[in-house]
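Students often ask what a 'structure token' actually looks like in practice. Rather than answer in the abstract, let us consider Fe2OG dioxygenase domain-containing protein, a protein of 256 residues. Its sequence is given first.
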Amino acid sequence: MSLRRLKVTEGEPASPNPNVDGDDTIKAKRQTVVLGNGSEVVFIPRLISFDQAWKWFDYLDTQIAWTRPTIRVFGLSCLQPRDTCYVVSPGLPQLVYSGYQPRAYSWDDHPLLKQILEAVHKALPGSSFNSLLLNRYKGGNDYVGWHSDDEKLYGSTPEIASLTLGCDREFFLKKKKPSKTVQERRDEQEPASKRIKRNHADQHSFMLKHGSLLVMRGYTQRDWMHSVPKRSKVEATRINLTFRNVLEEPGATAAK
Ligand SMILES: O=C(O)CCC(=O)C(=O)O
Ligand SMILES: [Fe+2]
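Now compare that with the structural description of the same chain:
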């Protein structure tokens, strides 16, 4: 069997890769998953080229001031099961979650983060983010449990764009249990043989690969929860960057 090789002639300019857009991003295929009732997820499995994504990973792994804070869950203090760091534009309300107020770093502390933000803005025309919560999962024991990012400072329909660098991890979405609708209560009164099957998917999973971007939109934080569960066989590190937009406090003047 003969192997076909690409012939590269010395001195000739490398032919531009039609799939690469600028330095960092790939003109990537995207999938939109309509979750219903005004919620949707957009998934771009390969936004950032493989090599670029590893360069970013190496920088962030070594240069970010990672911390593993103590948080409160169901009234108990525990160590957050992943490292974190928070970056936000000046003059915006403080983020507090699980009883923890992260120290707010500036975008100027890491010019690379501004470059990554630019790549994300370019991939999502019309979207705008001013804060970034970074997570570092140092192996399969690190995780994020079921939650929604429904803090008031993001408003009622926050958009959250989540970039993965490093090890692949599974990401799950599950619908919050609504109080039963009138129709559902009626359905329950029907004998089983007459019940209409309403088959709305209320769980979704995505394999978040190196260089991928997952975007949650609309009412996803109000109506759905998400998680990255433990995986006993995973040993490698994953870095995740979640870009969010913090709303200004009403009456506050924007810092220029
Ligand atoms: O690591 C991820 O993909 C998700 C992180 C997340 O949900 C969060 O930081 O709120
Ligand atoms: Fe989240």
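One point worth highlighting: Residues 147, 149, 226 surround fe (ii) ion (ligand 2) (CB under 6 Å). Ask yourself how you might have guessed this from the sequence alone, and why that guess would often be unreliable.
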